[in-house]
Design goal:
The complex is a heterodimer of chains A (275) and B (99). Chain A has 275 residues and is mainly beta. Chain A is 6% helix and 40% strand. Chain B has one domain. Classes of the chains: A mainly beta (275), B mainly beta (99). The interface between A and B is large, with 67 and 70 residues. Strand 11 of chain A pairs antiparallel with strand 2 of chain B.
């Protein structure tokens, strides 16, 4: 069944979802990212090794929260973000080494990505250890989206470019603590991004398709994976007259679906009867 | 003695008719449905019983699984609906889920 036919039938397979990751565990439960850490980062935490997606996906948006380099912010005119990746088979390296693949290396005007500015609402709960707690949100949007393969490790390098200083400091968003690239004078605390899981049929399909569906990934129990497609409208009729839903499950994955308990799967179909 | 009758107020209806749309759900069983081993592109068919009508509109599909795999769910209007003769094939729709 060609994917274009599915679209023609009003079926859109995926809409974007939001993925969050931790870059500093110390923030713990205080941050707005609290909740189930989706399966794409299986183990969570601040170790760079955890930033390995388990499925192919596309990144359409990255959000970064940063603090304590207010001096750079004051003078900043631009913000630079570099997203680098390495294959999973390679040991993690400094993301600035040539071995990494630069997925994007772009400079945005400061105001264009800092429209959210200082998030004063986070001051009270953010880092009881003191400090100025200047807390800025940055949003980077990618159009077209960036494709990232499963198994890749990747890092976000975030740079505030001040004026007149051409490049004030680099801040990596993947280390545990003291992330400042030049003496720890700033910290990028965490970020999250919107992504679009990709599949063979969706590789060329933008995450910004008709938004009639909701897509949700969760991992609320060990070994439980779930996905909900809502907003569907698939007329169906059992022409056998047996009031049965005739359904076929096909495994499109290179990995074999196991038999028995190890391969358990439950499909729930919500419907509206038509008289 | 005749039972007393309390007259209804003119504004009180005999009953209230409340329009509601109840979400109906049919669900596969983890122990009896889709239990076989499926290598890539292999499929398994099931007939889920219990629809309230032969004609329905599917509005939501939820899949939970032990394995995070890439599946396609296809719907057919007949049992064993696949047929090499496309005029006889009863395919009506499909979704794909990447867990």
């Amino acid at each position: 069944m060609p994917y274009s036919d599915l679209i023609g039938r009003g079926l859109v397979l995926y809409e974007h979802a939001v993925m969050r990751f931790y870059s500093q565990e110390a923030w713990g439960t205080k941050g707005p990212q609290e909740g189930n850490n989706p399966e794409i980062f299986p183990t969570g935490g601040g170790d760079v090794q955890t930033f390995a997606p388990v499925v192919n996906h596309q990144i359409s948006e990255i959000w970064i929260a940063a603090r304590d380099f207010s001096a750079q912010f004051t003078a900043a005119t631009k913000v630079k973000l570099v997203l680098r990746s390495v294959p999973a088979s390679e040991a993690w390296q400094d993301p600035t080494t040539p071995a990494t693949k630069v997925l994007t290396n772009a400079v945005w005007p400061f105001l264009a990505v800092s429209a959210f500015g200082e998030d004063t609402g986070q001051r009270a709960t953010f880092d009881s250890g003191g400090g100025t707690n200047l807390f800025h949100w940055f949003r980077f949007r990618f159009d077209p989206v960036i494709s990232v393969s499963a198994g890749q490790l990747y890092a976000f390098n975030f740079l505030v470019v001040g004026d007149p200083t051409p490049e004030a400091s680099w801040f990596a968003a993947v280390a545990d603590d003291e992330l400042g690239g030049s003496g720890g004078d700033g910290t990028v605390y965490y970020g999250y991004y919107k992504y679009n899981p990709t599949a063979p049929h969706t590789d060329t399909y933008s995450a910004y398709g008709p938004g009639s569906l909701a897509f949700r990934v969760y991992n609320n129990e060990a070994n439980a994976h779930g996905l909900t497609l809502s907003g569907l409208h698939i007329p169906y009729e059992d022409t056998d007259g047996t009031k049965k839903l005739h359904m076929v499950l096909e495994n499109l994955d290179p990995t074999t679906k196991a038999a028995g308990a190890d391969g358990e799967i439950v499909v729930e179909i919500a419907y509206t009867p038509v008289s | 003695m005749s039972p007393s009758v309390t007259p209804r107020r003119p504004s009180s209806p005999d009953y209230l008719l409340v329009l509601s749309q109840r979400l109906q759900v049919v669900r596969s069983d983890k122990d009896t449905h889709f239990t076989g081993q499926l290598t890539k592109n292999q499929s398994e068919a099931e007939d889920l019983t219990g629809l309230l009508s032969d004609r329905i509109i599917i509005t939501r599909i939820t899949v939970t699984a032990k394995q995070a795999l890439y599946f396609r769910l296809s719907f057919y209007t007949k049992s064993a609906g696949t047929n090499a003769d496309l005029d006889q094939d009863s395919f009506v729709g499909a979704v794909e889920v990447l867990l």
